[in-house]
Every structure is written in C-alpha cells, then in structure tokens.
Write a structure and sequence with these properties.
This protein has two domains: about 30 residues; about 110 residues, no CATH class. It has three helices and two strands. It has a two-stranded antiparallel sheet. The longest helix has about 35 residues. About 15% of the residues are buried.
Length: about 140
C-alpha cells in the first residue's frame, strides 16, 4: 500500500467519524424548539399614472422559542401562547414600520396580527398536544 492511499484511507475514516459525530450531536439536541410566526403585507405601489399596478406580498417571519417551557403544564402552554401573540404583534409592527404606505390592498394592522396569530396557533397547539402525548406515553411506559 502506498503512502498516498494510506493517507487517503485515514482521511476518509476521519471525515466519516466527524460526519457521524455531527449527526449524533444534532439528534441528541433534538429538533429546534420554535414556533414560527409569519406576517404578510400585500402592497400595490403607486405607478405614477400607469393603468396597471404591480402587487407585491411582503413576508416577515420570526421564531418563538419554547425550549425553556414545560408544555405539559397549563402555565407552560399559556406562556407559549402569550409569546406567540406578543411576537405576532411585534412582527406586524415591524412590517408597518418598514412598509408604512397603505392602499386598498393592504390589510389593516389588526388583521395582520389576527392572521399571524391564527396561523401560528395551529402549530402551537400541535406542539402542545405532542408534548402532552409524549408525557402520557412516558408515564404509561414508566408508571411510578
């Protein structure tokens, strides 16, 4: 065996070990514990006398972490829902600041918040249900 092929084998083995370690670490950490809040603003910029308008949808998203919460408790679930509501309001406020012009295609600010909350609550409720189910299964598997 030549020195080059031995070096190649060692390099490939080291690379495989590093890759498998990275995968194991990612699996140990688990999935990202966030609910994503997304707000939209549809705008039709003025076109200075033209007969058509170009409609544009602007989207802004932000994650809400629940890694520090016990979602199997009422207080943990309530805290996540409150974080979702607060973040939806903040995201819509940021959209309004960055794109302040309003026209007939714009949703009112309140509608932006309501839609962002509604969409995020679907994911929020699913996450809470999954946490409750996992706890119930764990309790059944390991009764005290």
């Amino acid at each position: 065996m030549t020195a080059v092929s031995r070096f190649t084998q060692i390099s490939l083995a080291a690379l495989a070990l590093a890759f498998s370690s990275a995968i194991a670490l990612a699996q140990a950490e688990g999935p990202l514990q966030e609910v994503e809040i997304t707000a939209f603003k549809t705008v039709a910029p003025s076109n200075h006398g033209a007969t058509w308008r170009q409609v544009e949808t602007i989207q802004l998203s932000r994650g809400v972490s629940y890694a520090d919460l016990d979602l199997t408790t009422e207080s943990g679930a309530a805290e996540l829902r409150q974080r979702v509501r607060n973040t939806a309001k903040e995201v819509c406020q940021q959209l309004q600041r960055e794109h302040p012009f309003a026209n007939e295609t714009d949703l009112p600010f309140g509608s932006c918040v309501e839609e962002a909350i509604h969409d995020a609550m679907v994911e929020t409720n699913a996450v809470i249900s999954a946490a409750e189910k996992a706890r119930a299964e764990s309790t059944e598997a390991h009764p005290q």
